[in-house]
Design brief:
It is built from eleven helices and twelve strands. It has helices at about 5-20, 50-60, 75-80, 95-100, 130, 145-150, 165-170, 185-190, 210-215, 225-240, 245-250; strands at about 25-30, 40, 45-50, 65-70, 85-95, 105, 115-120, 135-140, 155-160, 180, 200, 215-220. The chain is globular, with a radius of gyration of 23 Å.
């Protein structure tokens, strides 16, 4: 026979019904800055950039608050595995080696890499003999580091930098014979190929081979977080389809990165 709740039980039931649902914790997104125009700080300290605005838009559409966590690149995947944050949204290219460690979203942009030198320095990347002994800079732990180490490590002195900012500084000051850089970083940090910059590209834009340069940039998740990854995928598809992506892209870059 059914008995209505009375006394203390009835009071507890009423309280449980009246209490609002507990809000979800903010989503923590890891980012390595500065990496203009994708993630960087304005003079007032505000974090901005293409990926920052894109990430905020994704969070808005999945009705979650975003919290950005700064993390240096060489520790960014270990931090994800240690659950210091929920995802990495920091220009991480999809590669087979990384797929063994993390779960990727669908790709949301693609960008090339490029060799750069000071104007007047002759660096012919097709002439392996001419490269012998040169000091070539890369950002530590990146796909460019892997590519240069594997392809030219027996010929050149590979100098590794913790940040793209430090790498760009040594290109400007002539401490390096050449550098192999992410093209957007070469544009933002070095104003490469611009009149008066003193820094020029010394190769075509490079996107191959895929085993190094990947299949586009994506959000990286802990392998167990499949549901969260699919939420991001759905939001990213909407953003691409309704024109929001194009608006953000043209705000930050003057070439096509959409994928």
């Amino acid at each position: 026979m059914f008995r209505p709740a009375t006394g203390l039980a009835a009071t507890l039931a009423t309280l449980l019904i009246a209490l609002p649902a507990q809000a979800e914790d903010p989503l923590k997104l890891a980012v390595d800055i500065p990496f203009e125009p994708f993630e960087y700080r304005l003079p007032d300290g505000t974090l901005t950039g293409f990926e920052v605005e894109l990430g905020e838009e994704v969070c808005r559409r999945i009705e979650r608050e975003c919290e950005w966590v700064e993390q240096s690149w060489d520790g960014i995947i270990p931090g994800l595995m240690a659950r210091k944050y929920d995802a990495i949204m920091s220009s991480m290219a999809i590669t087979e080696a990384r797929r063994d460690k993390v779960l990727f979203s669908e790709p949301y942009y693609s960008n090339p890499s490029v060799w750069v030198t000071q104007a007047g320095r002759e660096v012919d990347i097709e002439d392996r003999e001419a490269l012998e002994g040169l000091a070539v800079g890369v950002q530590r732990g990146t796909i460019r580091d892997n590519y240069i180490t594997d392809t030219y490590g027996d010929l050149v002195e590979v100098r590794r930098y913790t940040t793209g900012e430090d790498l760009a500084l040594d290109v400007k000051t002539g401490r390096l014979d050449a550098a192999f850089m992410y093209y957007p970083l070469a544009l933002s940090a070095l104003d490469v190929d611009a009149e008066g910059s003193g820094i020029v590209t010394s190769s075509p834009l490079i996107r191959e081979p895929k085993r190094y340069f990947g299949h586009g940039v994506a959000v990286a998740f802990h392998p167990r977080d499949e549901a969260l990854a699919e939420q991001f995928n759905e939001a990213l598809r909407e953003i691409k389809q309704d024109g929001t992506y194009d608006d953000l892209m043209h705000k930050y870059v003057d070439y096509d990165i959409k994928i």
